[in-house]
Write a structure and sequence with these properties.
By secondary structure, this protein is α/β, with parallel strands linked by helices. It has three domains: 76 residues, Winged helix-like DNA-binding domain superfamily/Winged helix DNA-binding domain (Arc Repressor Mutant, subunit A); 130 residues, Aspartate Aminotransferase, domain 1 (Alpha-Beta Complex), CATH 3.90.1150; 218 residues, 3-Layer(aba) Sandwich (Aspartate Aminotransferase, domain 2). It has 17 helices and 17 strands. The strands form five sheets. Strands 5-12-11-10-9 form a five-stranded mixed β-sheet, sandwiched between helices. A hairpin with a 7-residue loop joins β13 and β14. α3 packs across α4, α8 packs across α14 and α9 runs parallel beside α10. The N and C termini lie far apart (55 Å).
């Protein structure tokens, strides 16, 4: 059965086909026309149906994926995320207009920049120079040991149990869960029982399913401000009531919240990069014990640390079973591998596995799970992380030096020694910031407006992702930004 969308009205409103398709699909999802679990057409078929390039169709899907409207399953396709149509209801019933309206004002601009070069208003496209984009969220795959990975794939495909896929528990491949437990014990100090680990199709699927299990309509849920927008979507889609928690240079600021659920990124706060102090970690655990609350710890890119002693995760300090630890392989491996996991308290293992079995009676990406277990057991994953950490350390250092030398009058960088992006606060007013972004686009350089992550208007800021760029591109991008500022002064 072919997908039927009234795309003509959207084409009149939006300048580009990929934007029109994105909005048409998004509205259909929110309206319930495309309910959760609906399998969407492949990009090739979508491109044929609506007479656009396959790249444009893929770009629309990427935007929906980034915002949590769809999920992908390796070897299976793209599906509408469960519960997303409740976003409108949550917005209307819980007076979230200040949250969503501010988010919405910035979203169109962010979506445009997220996809690559584009025109804004009547500006002309950059046809004669390479676009330098500081937007991106994944590890650079050029350095990935694909030959070693291919060997692990061959091993997995030839495994005697590969044909008995239906026997694999919904929680995921036992060997992979064992390998993850060993990795966390060695690198993060977490004593994880493999039976308490559940594999997901990316960390966002885990966040969404846990939200559905733990949030009842109207429940107050504490999230960081600024914080990861995917978590915000998950809470709203479950009709939860957002309780913003402020962040400073030492991470989330603990309070006596009247809530039983908290989302936090302690190892490297998203997006500011702040590391939660040990004192505050203990405060959060004490709060959870007093309120009988659950803390969901999203450790999204702690694998890449360039200096300093890493703080113990909340999960490593938790002795009462109040912390859920979420990790992902999406940033450390390559974009096509959508695997994440959660380390659960014992009391939540059975409910989570049972709920996951309703969506996925058979765990997804079976071949990749078995291959990854082999890859980790043979030391390939550890070697890859060490190699990439050295590479990213050089890029991170170079970006910091360039920004200090050429942009210190424009941005104040947040100090950090880990992760794949740099967070920087704008030193001038909001109106000047908007003009500067346009001047940068005229110079062929773009970066992410951090307003996407804020629940209310605050100090303008930007995120500069560097993992996909080389040294020359970093220098070219920062130089163009400095020239863009000069253009403003001369204009």
């Amino acid at each position: 059965m072919e997908l039927g969308l009234s795309l003509e009205a959207y084409l009149e409103k939006y300048r580009y086909k990929y934007l029109a398709l994105y909005h048409a699909l998004r509205d259909a999802i929110l309206a319930g026309i495309l309910p959760g679990g609906t399998r969407l057409p492949a990009t090739r078929e979508l491109a044929r149906l609506y007479e656009m390039s396959r790249g444009s169709a893929a770009q629309s899907y990427d935007m929906l994926l980034a915002e949590g409207y769809v999920v992908t399953m390796t070897g299976s396709g793209t599906y509408v995320a469960m519960g997303i149509s409740l976003l409108e209801q949550a917005h209307e019933e819980h007076d979230c207009e200040p949250v969503l309206s501010i988010w919405g004002q910035r979203m169109t601009e962010w979506m445009l920049s997220h996809g690559g070069s584009f025109n804004l208003g009547h500006e002309q496209p950059m046809e004669d120079r390479e676009l330098i984009s500081f937007i991106g969220d994944r590890a650079e795959s050029a350095h990935f040991p694909f030959a070693e990975w291919k060997s692990s794939i061959h091993y997995a495909a030839g495994h005697p149990r590969h044909q008995s896929q239906l026997e694999l528990p919904s929680a995921g491949n036992p060997e992979l869960r064992q390998a993850i437990a060993g990795h966390l014990k060695f690198t993060r100090g977490i004593q994880a029982d493999p039976e308490h680990i559940v594999i997901f199709s990316g960390s966002m699927q885990g966040i969404m399913l846990l939200s559905q299990l733990l949030i009842s309509p109207g429940d107050p849920v504490v999230i960081e401000n600024p914080g990861y927008h995917g978590i915000r979507h998950a809470v709203l889609s479950c009709d939860g009531r957002i309780v913003p928690a402020q962040v400073d240079s030492a991470g989330l600021i603990p309070e006596r919240w009247d809530s039983r659920l908290l989302f936090v990124t302690p190892s490297r706060q998203y997006p500011t990069g702040a590391v939660l102090s040990m004192e505050r970690r203990r405060e959060l655990l004490n709060w959870a014990n007093i309120h009988k609350a659950i803390i969901i710890e999203d450790d999204y890119d702690s694998e890449f640390r360039f200096g300093g002693r890493p703080m113990e995760p909340l999960k490593a300090l938790d002795d009462t079973g109040r912390v859920i630890y979420i990790g992902s392989f999406s940033k450390t491996m390559f974009p096509g591998l959508r695997l994440g996991y959660a380390v659960l308290p014992k009391m939540l293992v059975k409910p989570v596995v049972s709920a996951k079995a309703l969506y996925e009676p058979v765990s997804p990406a079976l071949l990749e799970q078995r291959a990854l277990a082999h890859f980790m057991a043979r030391g390939g994953y550890g070697r890859h992380l060490r190699r990439m950490t050295r590479i990213y350390k050089g890029l991170h250092s170079r970006l910091g030096k360039l920004m200090e030398a050429k942009l210190s009058h424009l941005f104040r960088m947040n100090p950090g020694d880990a992760g794949l992006h740099v967070y920087a606060e704008w030193l001038h007013g909001p109106e000047t910031y908007d003009i500067f972004k346009k001047a940068c686009r005229n110079r062929g350089v773009e970066f992410r407006d951090a307003a996407l992550y804020h629940l209310s208007m605050g100090t303008p800021a930007a995120c500069f992702t560097f993992s996909h760029l080389d040294q020359d591109q970093l220098e070219s991008g920062i130089t163009r930004m400095a020239l863009a500022w000069k253009d403003m002064q001369n204009g």
